[in-house]
Design brief:
Elements: H1 2-19, H2 25-56, H3 61-97, H4 102-117, H5 122-145, H6 157-174, H7 181-192, H8 200-205
Helix pairs in contact: 2-3, 3-4
């Protein structure tokens, strides 16, 4: 027993010593990036899938749990693969050119995005839409910081809010098929299901009336 414990402690010391080696830092960063991508993807997707599945999807409990597990796995795997690819390509470019430049980040992310998120499925679509909204805000702020557009005299957020809500409800009412399915489900629940009821049960307690058999 003691010998086994000594061997384990020696192994841990060797592993910790390896982690402190600067020459292996880039490769180790890629590995940890893979780990962090997997963990973060699971943390983000699991609660979201749980809520959306039980709110809007029909089916047995087993089918719902399977759907949650599949969505969580896909998000976790894709994010892990992307971080691994992105950081690996950054390290390669930096090694080849002897330094890191801004274009390296753009090119590495483009290649990683194409390879990992290029499949047009619901999970990838949600991730890209999440990023796109933040990119638009970020580019707008950058344009002001660089002086490409003047600093607004008033906070433009209320105007942005009005345009976003006006546009999305117009699309929902008249071009619904252009919206992402989960958004369609949410808006149907909010704006259409609230127009229909039969008695107090599906007016206050349940969303939809179910006839007893």
């Amino acid at each position: 027993m003691a010998g086994g414990g000594d061997a384990l402690r020696s192994l841990l010391r060797a592993a910790n010593a390896l982690l402190q080696q600067r020459r292996y830092h880039a490769a180790l960063a890629v590995i940890k990036g893979f780990r962090n991508g997997a963990v973060y993807g699971a943390k983000i997707r699991a609660p979201h899938a749980l809520v959306m599945t039980f709110l809007f999807k029909s089916g047995s409990l087993r089918e719902k749990l399977k759907s949650i597990a599949q969505a969580t796995y896909t998000h976790s795997r894709n994010l892990a693969y992307f971080v691994f690819t992105y950081k690996g390509l950054l390290a390669v470019q930096s090694r080849l050119q002897g330094k890191k430049i801004p274009f390296h980040s753009f090119l590495a992310a483009c290649i990683g995005g194409w390879l990992v998120f290029g499949d047009n499925n619901p999970i990838n679509s949600q991730i890209i839409m999440y990023l796109l909204s933040r990119i638009l805000f970020g580019l707008s702020r950058l344009a002001v910081q660089k002086g490409y557009i003047p600093q607004p005299k008033q906070d433009p957020f209320p105007l942005v809010v009005a345009l976003v809500w006006g546009t999305v409800l117009w699309l929902f009412e008249y071009h619904r098929d252009t919206l992402q399915p989960s958004l369609q489900s949410s808006m149907t629940y909010l704006y259409e299901d609230s127009d229909v009821w039969h008695d107090l049960s599906d007016f206050l307690i349940y969303n939809k009336h179910t006839d007893s058999k």
